[in-house]
Amino acid sequence: MPHKLFRFNGGVKPATHKTDSVRAPIGRAPMPERLVVPLHQNIGGKPQPCVALGDRVLKGQVIGTADHWVSAAVHAPTSGTVRAIEPQLATHPSGLPTLSVVIEADGKDEWIERRPVDYASMAPESVRELLRDAGLVGLGGAVFPSHAKLSASKKTPMEELVINGAECEPFITCDDMLMRERGEEIVRGAGIFRDLLEPKRVLIGIEDNKPEAIAAMREAVAAAGESFEVIAVPTRYPAGGAKQLISVLTGKEVPSSKRSTDMGVQCFNVATASSAYRALTFGEPLISRIVTLAGNVEQPRNWEVPLGMTIRDFIALGTPRADTNRYLMGGPMMGFELPGLDAPLIKASNCIIAASPKLFPPPPPEMPCIRCGSCARACPHELQPFELYWFSRAANFGKAQEYHLFDCIECGCCAFVCPSHIPLVQYFRYAKGEIWGRERDKKAAESARARFEFRNERDEREKAEKAERLARAAAAKAADNPLASATAAPTAASPAATPAPAAAVTAAAAAAPTSPAVPGEAPAATGEASEAERARKAMIAAAVERARAQREAAAAARPHDAATSPEQ
Amino acid sequence: MSRYLSTSPYQLGNASVRRVMLLVLAGLLPGIAAYVWVFSPIILVQIAIASAFSLLGEALMLKVRGKPLSLFLGDGSALVTAWLIALALPPLAPWWLVAVAALFAIVIAKQLYGGLGQNPFNPAMIAFAACIVSFPALMSMWPSVTLKLSFIDQVQVVFGLMPHVDAMNGATPLDSLKTSLKLNEGGVNVPSLLATQEVFGYFAGRGWEWVTAGYLLGGLWLWWRDIIRWQAPLAFLAGLVAISGAFWLWQPAQYASPLFHLFSGGSLLCAFFIVTDPVSGATTPRGQLIFGFSAGILAYLIRVFGGYPDGVAFAVLLLNICAPLIDRYTQPRIFGLKGTR
Ligand code: SF4
Ligand code: SF4
């Protein structure tokens, strides 16, 4: 029975460049001698290090514990010794350092004791906790902690579980190869998600340019005796965006203000499903993933790599050609330029592209917008990119928000089609960064004011207390010396001392609730509502960081280039 | 100006302003070919004059404004304006009128507003309107297609080496219809007029109907190539047909049929090459429908009841003023905010 497909607006059809990296099967990357494992690899909280310098760690041992509900543990990818716990170059366009655990491999690759579980006999809550402690995050690139997506909405019954194998970005083939080679793991993982969410249907969406993967998945579904539907969706970027795939398969458009579970649907990447399966069935935490090495290399291929392997070690597997001038992580539509080869592969790394001026020529010069509307017709979120562009350019951020700037997913379709070659997405990132920056400044100003008021009150309270002490001393003196009391009491005690104790009490009472407003003292919020809030804040913080880094990178474009090119 | 893309997307499509403009020019070719065939190659001379002066004006202004010449001169937008002007003016208009129109369009209506992408009005239509207001006599001298004048003589007329003879001064089909109706208030009958007067052809102006049919063909091709959208042209034609049809049904003796109006004057040129101008038109799909439909109705009203031979230019200019407002109130609902299906 053919599944009814829906259409999302716009989208583009960039050249896919996918055939070169699927010729060879997934290779197993050799274990490097040194691994750099950043602790913060997920959206949400920052896992805290739980090992010390010089510790011997085993493969799969937790080295960073999840600090919040929306957070995910981090593990040692192999056995070895902790050589450093310090900020290292982040795998992030900003190139800022991020707290990382540096492990020197001992070559034994010795596992920690693995505890396979029979999840069916466990409480769903414990399964979710297990997945968090296994470090499971969305492997499509979003790295949102998966366990936090595995609770159905209380109000809306779950209808569809979407498993995303669309993989729409050019060059990336890691999901394609995973589906071809490990379909069973994906199907079993999808079964786990199904059991936790209890949807009516499970839909596996794959772009129709991957016939082998579609066939392999159909076979795997049949072999597992499941009733999942494997559906070929038209190849059109960004069909693999979660919202786009949900809309193609179910016709549901999840607005930015809602969670997809509120609409009875949830979406996971195929690699996430297979990792969930491995985590529960074999007790193997997320310490490796499949990464495509593509672009300007002699041997494009997919590799299963230990997370923490540096880009330098990784690209050596494919032998980059001489004219390679930079490396991208992710696809060419939404990926970013790596800040350096010392950055490690992380949970978000689906693809590394060796780029050359020939592969990605510098864009033609930017021309004025001719309001042709091509960008609007290409925008999968049905925005008016050229209006957003005018507003961003004019720094009219209020208007930009009114025109839904924050619904932009930065997919790049608009810039792809623009005849004037305007780097639209760059403008949108800039505008978002500015808006976030302003909001942060406002918050900073507010907390500064709170601090100021707190200090004022404290000063007053101290003054009052001092006056009280003086008064008490004076009273005592007066008692000792009855002769002096007639003169001392009215002078020292009367105006200040009498109201002092009362003032001190009120000041202290008033100060108490304000003190948590002082940064760094915020109490750990509890409850599910605040988890989402915290995740959102973390996302915003990350974006602010990114925007700032971009500005800085733009300002210092030349040294930045120089930093990356000679490493080749 | 040039900036190395340091952020995604790194892979870009092959669209460019130049490509868009060249395709628009290509879309004009069927109409031009018909023009040459039913009238004379003199139109090519006029196109050349308009192009030369447009590029000249563009180059001068770019220089004055300190903009990169190579980048903007090659974008093809000035040529589109030039060709539209040449096609809109009478074919035997003196060369200086064409030159003035081209310079006016580029210097005043485009570059002084900020150049490519910044002009609130369609430059070709501004120039056309300015000419019709300043030189009404010259602008209404449409020769009959039956005019017997050699190409060499036509060139001499254009360059002022040979005087305009009365025989060359015809009137546009729209004009003759209007004049005839005015002269015999109530006493004439449009169908019989169209059948008897030499200036009328099968379904519109004699000969010119094929030129406009050429614009239709080119326009459809542009739509097929995804250079223009269907909304504005279709709405424009729908507006024109709706109002002309209403009058025609009401008093067929007094008003020409929608078919006549469709293929007369600038209707089809406007529908596919003017109301589709992205810079000065509406940009939202619903906005383009409103823009086109209103322009169609206005064009008819000005054409039939106004003092000018054709109302297309004024209709478009009036709507250009409203375009930002139309856009503002026709913003489409975005993804996820349309309610679930
Ligand atoms: S595609 Fe480019 S030129 Fe066209 S409207 Fe959008 S931003 Fe302007
Ligand atoms: S980058 Fe943003 S504005 Fe551009 S097409 Fe994608 S969602 Fe739309």
From TrEMBL, chain A:
[4Fe-4S] cluster 1 binds at residues 369, 372, 375, 418. GO terms for cellular component: plasma membrane. Its EC number is 7.-.-.-. It is a peripheral membrane protein. One of its GO terms (biological process) is electron transport chain. Residues 507-519 have a biased composition (Low complexity). Signal peptide: none annotated. One of its GO terms (molecular function) is 4 iron, 4 sulfur cluster binding. Its main location: membrane. It is found in: Cell inner membrane. Its cofactor is [4Fe-4S] cluster. [4Fe-4S] cluster 2 binds at residues 379, 408, 411, 414. Binds 2 [4Fe-4S] clusters per subunit. Residues 359-389, 399-428 form the 4Fe-4S ferredoxin-type domain. Keywords: 4Fe-4S, Cell inner membrane, Cell membrane, Electron transport, Iron, Iron-sulfur, Membrane, Metal-binding, Repeat, Translocase, Transport. Residues 507-568 are annotated as: Disordered. Belongs to the 4Fe4S bacterial-type ferredoxin family. RnfC subfamily. The complex is composed of six subunits: RnfA, RnfB, RnfC, RnfD, RnfE and RnfG. Part of a membrane-bound complex that couples electron transfer with translocation of ions across the membrane. This is Ion-translocating oxidoreductase complex subunit C. It comes from Rhodocyclus tenuis (Rhodospirillum tenue). The lineage of its organism: Bacteria, Pseudomonadati, Pseudomonadota, Betaproteobacteria, Rhodocyclales.
From TrEMBL, chain B:
The chain crosses the membrane at residues 20-37, 43-62, 69-89, 95-113, 125-142, 207-224, 231-250, 256-275, 287-306. It is an enzyme of class 7 (translocase). One of its GO terms (cellular component) is plasma membrane. The gene is rnfD. The lineage of its organism: Bacteria, Pseudomonadati, Pseudomonadota, Betaproteobacteria, Rhodocyclales. The modification FMN phosphoryl threonine is found at residue 172. The complex is composed of six subunits: RnfA, RnfB, RnfC, RnfD, RnfE and RnfG. Pfam families: NQR2_RnfD_RnfE (PF03116). This is Ion-translocating oxidoreductase complex subunit D. Keywords: Cell inner membrane, Cell membrane, Electron transport, Flavoprotein, FMN, Membrane, Phosphoprotein, Translocase, Transmembrane, Transmembrane helix, Transport. Belongs to the NqrB/RnfD family.
